[in-house]
Amino acid sequence: MGKQLGQGDIDALFAAAATKAASQDGVPEETPIELYNFSRAGQISNDQMRAISSVNDLFARNLMHTLGAWLRAQFKVKLVAGEQLPFNEFLERITPPTYICSVRLEPLGAVGLFEFDMAIAAPIVDVLLGGVGRAWAARELTEIEEAILTSVVEMAVDELNLAWQSVGLEFVFEKRETEAAVARMLTLSEKTLCVSFEARMPEAQGTINLCLPAVVLNAILRRLISEGDRPKRRSKEAQARVRNLMGDVKLSAALQFPAMRLRASDLTALAPGTVLRLPLAKHAASELRIGGLQFGRAYPVRSGEHRGAQLEECIDVVAAANTEPASEQTASVN
User: Fold this and answer.
1) In the structure, what pLDDT confidence band is assigned to residue 333 with cuts at 50, 70 and 90?
2) Cα gap 23→143, rounded to integer Å
3) Which pLDDT belongs to residue 136?
4) What are the DSSP calls for 194-249, one per residue?
5) Which one, of 215, 187, 211, 199, lies nearest residue 90 by Cα?
6) Which of 87, 106, 320, 330 is most deeply packed, by most CB within 10 A?
7) 319, β-bridge pairs
8) What SUPFAM superfamilies does UniProt report for this protein, alphabetically (predicted)?
């Protein structure tokens, strides 16, 4: 048996239909109101922060390898945090004594700040002065210690340039700044990007901080995101450094005789002191192999007390590698 609707039920159905029709026409019955915080205007989005973090993570890895090799000691650097905050909050995080310097940001003409916490700066200086890298009590650096640490900071600025070169930003080291001079660098309410790194050595640990003004963010964020979508390319400086490092790599070299036929009876008759006559012409060229790959044809020669190979012609190494036999016997040349 069907349900009979009363007048109240009918009025409720018509009211619901009218509300649905108004919503479909783009005029909601009640528009929600949300509070807007003007202090968050221009806040860095998550995608932008990820792009910035990728560049600074590259800087951390490069600095870890470069400075660790220079110190000849274990030195680890990792990105800890990147956040946007007013300049006065960055000043509150500075704990004197510390080493903080100004870096000019070209081609924008702006100025940023680069800080080495004394907890990690002191052990670095100690290692370079012949120590084991222990931290000492908080104090100001002597003139000699400051000169040594300045050279370390300049090296770190070079690594900043390599990491940020893809977005066209260049860091130029200016000088160490006093606390009073740092406070006048930017207005207290100006937004900055503060990037913090944790540095560790066997006997100490500390922080390295980079502070960039908001004008830099507005100029590079779009390029950072677009560069993140492109395949990574090595900069010319990085390629040159790789070539220089590869120049010191040592490869095995061998001068291999061409294929020949020998009597089995001659081989079985071999004994210490026996001279085996090879069926080769006096001036027959042999194969010069570098790292197991055929490099060219050469003649055996002597250079002072060493044996050598005089190169006659080079071949296509890639083509030779594609046609390389499974195994061959070689005669090594010292």
Assistant:
1) very low
2) 74
3) 81
4) EEEEEEEETTEEEEEEEEEEHHHHHHHHHHHHHHHTSPP---HHHHHHHHHHHTT-
5) 211
6) 87
7) none
8) CheC-like, Surface presentation of antigens (SPOA)
Say how far apart CA 70 and CA 75 lie, in whole Å.
10
Q: What does the pLDDT look like over 62-96, one tens digit per residue?
A: 999 999 888 888 899 999 988 888 999 999 988 88
CB-CB contact of 75 with 64 (8 Å): yes
Give pLDDT, residue 1.
46
pLDDT classification of 331: cutoffs 50, 70, 90: very low
Domain range 46-246, CATH class: alpha beta
Look up residue 173 and give its DSSP letter. Answer: E
Provide the token pair at 303: 């250079």
DSSP string, 42-61: TPPPHHHHHHHHHHHHHHHH
For the chain, the domains span 46-246, 250-259+278-334
Under CATH, to which class is 250-259+278-334 assigned?
mainly beta
Q: Are residues 329 and 286 in contact, defined by beta-carbon separation less than 8 angstroms?
A: no
pLDDT digits (tens, 9 = 90+) for 47-57: 667 777 888 88
pTM summary value = 0.56
List Cα–Cα distances, 119 to 74, 235, 323, in angstroms: 16, 33, 58
The single-letter DSSP state of residue 277 is P
The DSSP element (H or E) to which 158 belongs, if any, is helix 143-164
Rounded to the nearest 10 degrees, the angle between the axes of helix 143-164 and helix 46-71 is: 130
First-to-last alpha carbon distance for the chain, in angstroms, is 107
What is the rounded distance in angstroms from the CA atom of residue 118 to the CA atom of residue 95?
9
